């Protein structure tokens, strides 16, 4: 058969597959049964991660970020946890997959780096032994080969004198070094997706910057995507391609780094940015507190704390996301057709004071 006689369809299909998201989360809802009722930690969120990109989930502690990423590979204990929705990885639905399939993907194709390396490492064994065990779980290799790979990984994540430190115990390393070891352990299976859950929270600013630089280097070296979880928008400024802002289990806003930092649309996103050093609100923080997850508000989750909230914000569930520019969407009633979105801008509507703006919005309320 000549080259011109070949059916072009397979190539077209391959191109389509390659353009599909690496990870696609749709309507993810994770709840926990408690004595006080059903606790809703994640309530119908959508998140997409494409190969080679870094997507950051941002929000206050308690916003549902950790539960969301642990739901991806079903790390949430069931019962009391219950995960609903769709999580597709390379086109395969992980929530309906059998346990053997999930185990083969977890730690291999999707790897997790957790918040506290102090608790994640076993202090009864050397770091080298733990790395070798992790390698041999994923690969059928001799111990000598596993040891060589473990030393190489320690070297790649920046552990100085890796071969001589192979037999050291976790307590002999600093906090930043422990986190580097956990990153090395996550890289054992050469993952396509690295899920990093608050990996810099317990580190000082200098070490934090080093770990962020390391993530960027390894992302390129290992050709992997990163789903990064943090409560601090300042952390993600240099590493994120796209940001998804979560609050009380709901998505408030999503967009590129430039969208979020230069043109934030949701009042909650603006409040988070105001908490960054030098922005004026880093000491007092955001007034109020997160709603009770067993009794979320009827309308927008942020409405009880929002200075711009009107009657429409307190009913009819979380507003549907409105795309305000390509790839940038906001879940806020002020972006609905017929409303003035400038009401929720820092300056308020042109020529109108903030108090007058709120009154104007109320007068147009349904």
If you had to describe this structure to a student in words, what would you say it looks like?
The chain is an alpha/beta fold and 366 residues long. The protein has a domain at 120-190. It is 32% helix and 21% strand. The protein is built from 13 helices and twelve strands. It has helices spanning 9-19, 65-72, 99-105, 117-120, 127-138, 143-156, 162-165, 175-186, 205-221, 233-236, 257-262, 267-274, 354-363; strands spanning 23-34, 37-49, 54-58, 81-89, 92-93, 110-113, 193-197, 225-230, 242-247, 250-256, 322-325, 328-330. It has an eight-stranded mixed sheet with strand order 6-7-8-3-9-10-12-11. Strands 2-1-4-5 form a four-stranded antiparallel sheet. A hairpin with a 2-residue loop joins strand 4 (81-89) and strand 5 (92-93). The radius of gyration is 23 Å and the shape is globular. It starts with 8 loop residues before the first helix and ends with a helix.
Summary tags:
single chain, 366 residues, alpha/beta, 8-stranded mixed β-sheet, 32% helix, disordered C terminus, translocase, P-loop_NTPase, ABC-type nickel transporter activity, transport
């Amino acid at each position: 058969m000549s080259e011109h006689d070949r059916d072009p369809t397979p190539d077209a299909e391959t191109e389509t597959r390659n353009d599909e998201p690496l990870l696609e989360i749709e309507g993810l809802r994770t709840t926990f049964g408690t004595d006080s009722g059903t606790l809703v930690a994640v309530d119908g969120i959508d998140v997409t991660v494409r190969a080679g990109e870094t997507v950051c989930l941002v929000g206050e502690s308690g916003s549902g970020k950790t539960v969301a990423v642990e739901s991806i590979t079903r790390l949430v204990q069931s019962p009391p946890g219950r995960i609903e929705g769709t999580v597709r990885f390379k086109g395969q639905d992980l929530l309906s997959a059998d346990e053997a399939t999930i185990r083969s993907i977890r730690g291999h194709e999707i790897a997790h780096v957790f918040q506290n390396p102090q608790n994640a490492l076993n202090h009864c064994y050397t770091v080298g032994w733990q790395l070798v065990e992790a390698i041999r779980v994923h690969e059928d290799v001799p111990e000598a080969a596993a040891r060589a790979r473990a030393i190489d990984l320690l070297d790649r994540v920046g552990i100085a004198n890796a071969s001589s430190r192979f037999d050291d115990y976790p307590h002999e390393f600093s906090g930043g070094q422990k986190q580097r070891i956990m990153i090395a352990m996550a890289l054992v299976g050469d993952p396509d997706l690295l899920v990093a859950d608050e990996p810099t929270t317990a580190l000082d600013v200098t070490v934090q910057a080093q770990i962020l630089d390391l993530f960027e280097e390894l992302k390129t070296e290992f050709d992997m995507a990163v789903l990064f979880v943090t409560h601090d928008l300042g952390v993600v400024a240099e590493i994120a391609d796209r940001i998804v802002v979560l609050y009380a289990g709901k998505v408030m806003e999503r967009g590129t780094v430039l969208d979020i930092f230069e043109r934030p649309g949701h009042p909650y996103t603006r409040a988070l940015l105001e908490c960054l050093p030098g922005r004026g609100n880093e000491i007092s923080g955001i007034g109020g507190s997160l709603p009770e997850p067993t009794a979320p508000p009827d309308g927008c989750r942020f409405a009880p704390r929002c200075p711009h909230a009107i009657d429409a914000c307190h009913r009819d569930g979380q507003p549907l996301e409105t795309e305000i520019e390509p790839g940038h969407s906001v879940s806020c009633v002020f972006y609905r057709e017929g409303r003035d979105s400038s009401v929720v801008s820092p300056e308020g509507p042109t020529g109108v004071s903030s108090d007058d703006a709120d009154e104007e919005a109320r007068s147009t309320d349904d």
